[in-house]
Automatic annotation (TrEMBL):
Residues 98-211 form the Fe2OG dioxygenase domain. InterPro entries: Oxoglu/Fe-dep_dioxygenase_dom (IPR005123), Pro_4_hyd_alph (IPR006620), Pro_4_hyd_alph_FE2OG_OXY (IPR044862). Keywords: Dioxygenase, Iron, Metal-binding, Oxidoreductase, Vitamin C. This is Fe2OG dioxygenase domain-containing protein. It holds the Pfam family 2OG-FeII_Oxy_3. One of its GO terms (molecular function) is L-ascorbic acid binding.
Amino acid sequence: MAILNVNKTRNIEFLSRAGLFLTEDFLNQDLHAEILAEARLQSKERAKISRNSMSLIDDDFRKTSIVHISESKALLIKAELLSLKPTLESCFNVKLKGCQPPQILSYEVGDFFGIHIDNAGKAPDAADFLKERRVSVVIFLNDQVETPQANSYMGGTLTFYKLIKNDPRWDAFGFPLMGKANLLVAFPSDVLHEVKTVTYGERFTMVTWFV
Ligand SMILES: O=C(O)CCC(=O)C(=O)O
Ligand SMILES: [Fe+2]
């Protein structure tokens, strides 16, 4: 699919206008550094996808790992994320109960996540935890760069689809968001998105879903 080529700064502006919520420097600096350090050290397991009420690994659709983080860090992270609830409620005009346990995701070279929505849409046999997702949140933990640099990654662009409603001419266009350490993006969980293949380094994100 075609990807619109827009510069990094303007893209934040553009995606905000298209209805996404973006905020820079979301986590306090110490917590951000601690999470990233922990993400690089801890063990990981391959992330699964849900299909026909089954949870399975499908390398053709998603190659991502979930990092095991300490219980204490998970609690701190959740508290930070919950502080965002009122803002997300007014931004997306929904009443939210809370958020699902945050996950730290790692994408090594060759990893990606194909085009999907986070809340299973109208699939009748989907698990309840998927159906109840209202607002998805992604926090980038390290920088996406254009030439190799330590602690950063290349490729792995988070790309959104069908942001321009009621005009099918735009349906094939992907709207990219370059990763930037501590940038947070929130979007309705029925927005189509994907993570392109990582081509250098290791990409870390933290994700949760408000319900
Ligand atoms: O890692 C990302 O940027 C997004 C991950 C994602 O789309 C998901 O976990 O549903
Ligand atoms: Fe997603």
